[in-house]
Amino acid sequence: MNSRLLRRALIIFAAGLILLLLGLASAWYLREPAPPKQSRIDGPSSAEAKIGGPFELTDQNGELRRARHFSGQYMLIYFGFTFCPDACPTALTNMTQALDMLEEEAQTKAEQVVPIFITVDPERDTVEEMASYAEHFHPDLVALTGTRDQIAAAAKQYRVYYEKVETESAGEYLMDHSSQIYLMGPEGKYLTHFTHQTPADELAAGLERYVK
């Protein structure tokens, strides 16, 4: 066989090998299940997100509160901490103003919504500290604290990230944390969420849309 025929044979063989490999790859890909669709957590979604669940914490009056105690009500939940310099007071202020707006437009709807603040800093956020802090916001605000394990369990249910961040001042620290405001339905199911920067009027409009 001359060099020309040999080169042609090699080209045909290589092309056949490539086609075979592509065919095997396609067959393998078709055998693999499609990746599951992830629920969006950046706004309203028609898919049911795996957010929420049971918790056992203590409110600012020292009373034990479980998630089931809010059954039949809408929970507007925010995780933060009382020493938070910006995001937390912004979120709680927007929640307060939104509920006030909702009450002016539809009082019966506003009465169905319970604003809840859960600390991610149980070391400093004692019952007394939470009571003092809650006074600055909505009169119906339920401020919850607990042990490290209780807070960790609640944060896990709501897919909340938090971590202690040391500052330059000795003994001082901040808490880095996710900053969503969750709206949970009367049966404890996730409905939607907002950010701490969602304006009060938009938050009120969202509540009016979801609260029946």
UniProtKB/TrEMBL annotation:
Domain Thioredoxin, residue spans: 46-212
Entry keyword set: Copper
Family: Belongs to the SCO1/2 family.
PANTHER family, A to Z: ELECTRON TRANSPORT PROTIN SCO1/SENC FAMILY MEMBER, LINALOOL DEHYDRATASE_ISOMERASE DOMAIN-CONTAINING PROTEIN
Coiled-coil intervals: none
CDD domains found in the cross-reference section: SCO (cd02968)
Stored Gene3D superfamilies: Glutaredoxin (3.40.30.10)
Pfam families in the cross-refs: SCO1-SenC (PF02630)
Name this protein carries in UniProt: SCO family protein
UniProt key word Transferase: no
Keyword hit for rRNA-binding: no
Residue ranges, annotated region (Disordered): 35-56
InterPro entries recorded: SCO1/SenC (IPR003782), Thioredoxin-like_sf (IPR036249), Thioredoxin_domain (IPR013766)
